[in-house]
Every structure is written in C-alpha cells, then in structure tokens.
Amino acid sequence: MHKYALHLQKIINIVSILFLFGYQMVVVRNFFLSQVGSRRPIQNQLYNG
C-alpha cells in the first residue's frame, strides 16, 4: 500500500508539471501572437489589460 501511494504521488507530480508547462506554453504563444497581430508595444498591451 505504501509503495502504491508513493507511485501515485509520483504520477500526480509528473502530470501536474506537464499541465503547468503546457499551460505556460499556451499563454506565451497567445501573448506572442497577440503582440505580432496587433503590432502594439508591450507596454500598451500590459497597461490596457
């Protein structure tokens, strides 16, 4: 039972890391595409929300 719990925890850690990494990649890609599409300075994008 203890080994199974450790194995499950390892799987949860890997899945959470992959999920966070994938989410960051999507956010960065969307931010980059919005910058390229609008051709506005980064300051304006940040201040306007």
* Main sheet overview: none
Strand content: under 5%
Rg value: 18 Å
**Can you write the helix and strand succession as a string?**
HH
Query: How would you describe the oligomerization state of the chains in this entry?
Result: single chain
Overall mean pLDDT score?
83
- Gross morphology is rod-shaped
In helices, the fraction of residues equals: over 70%
**Structural class by helix and strand composition:** mainly alpha
First-last Cα distance = 49 Å
Features:
49 residues; rod-shaped; mainly alpha; transmembrane
Please provide a written account of the structure.
With 49 residues, this protein is mainly alpha-helical. The chain has a domain of 29 residues. 90% of the residues lie in helices and 0% in strands. The protein is built from 2 helices and no strands. The longest helix is centred in the middle third of the chain and has 37 residues. The radius of gyration is 18 Å and the shape is rod-shaped. It starts with a helix and ends with a helix. The mean pLDDT is 83. Keywords: Membrane, Transmembrane, Transmembrane helix.
Q: Quick gist of this model?
A:
The protein has 49 residues and is an all-alpha fold.
Compile the SSE list and pairings.
Elements: H1 2-38, H2 42-48
